[in-house]
Amino acid sequence: MPSQDAIEFSAKYRGWSASKVIPIPEGSSPEEIVKQISELRTAVDRKAFEILNIDTKSLDAYAASVSKGKKGVSGLSEAFREIGSKEGSGIILKACGEKPELEKVASSYLIRCISSNLGFDFYLSGKRK
């Protein structure tokens, strides 16, 4: 009996563990496979920020506020200018627990949130917009 293709993922770190096996039926489209891989990446990526104690909830809320009512590349540029302000810098620093060495990490999370809110994605997601 031939073995079936599958996406297998397993991780364990301190009190956190995750394990997932996603069977890939014969004839699955590349888009279906990319969607499955993307869902794993999203979950693991978010956990990485949590392990660093980045306050992702506050950054999500701030991303939503600076994204509201904006569209396209000009909206993206405007939102990025806002996060570069004194207020934005303060929110980022607070979200990383006042640890300057984590500001770039928190900023990258925020930039990705804003980009995603405005319809831009850094990664293949299997979504078609």
Strand order of the largest sheet: 1-2
User: Could you report the average pLDDT, rounded to the nearest whole number?
Assistant: 88
The number of domains is 2
- Provide the succession of SSEs: EEHHHHH
Shape: flat
Percentage beta strand: 5-15%
Segments where pLDDT lies below 50 for 5+ residues? none
Q: How far is the first residue's CA from the last residue's CA?
A: 39 Å
**How many strands in all?**
2
Structure description:
The chain is α+β, with helices and mostly antiparallel strands. The chain contains 5 helices and 2 strands. A hairpin with a 2-residue loop joins strand 1 and strand 2 (16-23). The longest helix is centred in the N-terminal third of the chain and has 22 residues, at 30-51. The mean pLDDT is 88.
Write a concise synopsis of the structure shown.
The protein is 55% helix and 12% strand. The chain is α+β, with helices and mostly antiparallel strands and 129 residues long.
